[in-house]
């Protein structure tokens, strides 16, 4: 086979290379790295020696790094076009392991095909794989490159014209050397070696709203939800049998099936998508796909799901908190997703819409010229910044009649998010407030207290309106409940306990005791000093007997008919002790305990200290917040 002119020039250069010119790291750069890549045909403008990686964790000392791309367009020089990362050391340095770790760290962001480490005397080149461990594919002294055969192979494998045309996706899927090793191992029946060489490389990294979690057996790539938008994820497995299988899960499935039982072991029965077949195998239902996984694969899957689900939940909770939407009911219609703020009759809605069209922001400069012309909605905007999108949703077909009812819906849509992202803000949440994006609660109060009174006053001289009738027909969904942290009376805990009871009633799976231990203990202490003459002892005893009928351990008494309130507290203390020794609890038992707490607080005369009440509020808050999240986002999607 004839040797190309480029290859000949590379051989001529490497054979004439003189080690004696290498005195320091700058010499390695100038006399080895730069000319080597030039003779490998990498254009100078396709590289950078000071690439600004967008992360706070990366060190700023980048002078010993060259990054080669497939393009000279600086804007396009990113993880999609990165080809090779080259790290060079001092000529007398042998600290290759640290340099390799540094290259691997950069590779997590740039995702090159290869990374190279050299001190000018020795060259090591690794092939980078997104999820699998990197593979050392060249490890020779520079002196060995003076051999014509080795230099030819080196040039043919790493020259720019070849490398730039490699499909990254194909390169990451087909690891020829790994598959070759697997085939050899199969022939030797060395199954342990096969498994070890198919494992992914553990890592977790996030780019914006895209989160990737990798464990040896499983990788999950997740697009986290943003505002009212939906997320999704894709799951892959490293095993030889399941390689190539990609399970895609939508927003509804993630919420409805992956969110419960977080941070629990697969065999505890706390996760709805798992069914244990034996000690070493689980049936796993993932959307429309059902697979049988080993205990190790199932454990890695659960670990990945825990990380992804926690971040998924954080994104949703952050959105609800930022936009103050918790107290409003979700609604979805005609591709619009929002929350219902309140209801008005059709006459008032038409006046509101007419006013918004008449006071278009381009037609005047008064304080009320703050609307943008829309077809059926009201867009509160001065053109530069959108404050709120308000839409009408008919309650039923009678809503079109003069006396019909219209739901007022608060929406965050793609247009709004895009306008926020055009600014210099790091996140859309930073723009929330009266001068930026209005929250649902602020929008509701503005409509009720400012906008609607203004509309009625403006049209009162033009049309025969009954202000009293229009205002009386407004049906608000505002929640007047005192928030947990503001509670001062023990009776005010009851609505929150009832929420938790409703949540536990539909919690089909076992529940982790880490969620219940503090709750059991603090509320048992709270009701401990209750007057023994409490009414409804038969109701309390009936709930205790239901617990006892399924409780083979820690049996305290069997003759419930003779029990008094002191025995009830003794039994509750026993449950506090029992749950400390168990990893999970049957959800129905938690329902029964909660029923008893509610009854005692509602019907008993309790003497408790401020410290006990404060402790009860602190114990209740995280449990209630979880119940609120799951009742609002998880169970509707099951």
Would you tell me the overall average pLDDT? 85
Structural class: alpha+beta
How much helical structure, as a percent, in the residues? 40-55%
Radius of gyration: 33 Å
Instruction: Note the overall shape.
Output: flat
Give the number of DSSP strands.
Answer: 23
Explain what this protein looks like in three dimensions.
- The chain is α+β, with helices and mostly antiparallel strands.
- The protein contains 20 helices and 23 strands.
- Strands 15, 16, 17, 18, 19, 20 and 21 form a 7-stranded antiparallel beta sheet that branches. Strands 1-2-3-4-5-6 form a 6-stranded mixed beta sheet. Strands 7-8-9-10-11 form a 5-stranded antiparallel beta sheet.
- A hairpin with a 7-residue loop joins strand 5 (122-127) and strand 6.
- The two termini are 64 Å apart.
- Residues 51-62, 419-426 and 552-557 have low confidence and may be disordered.
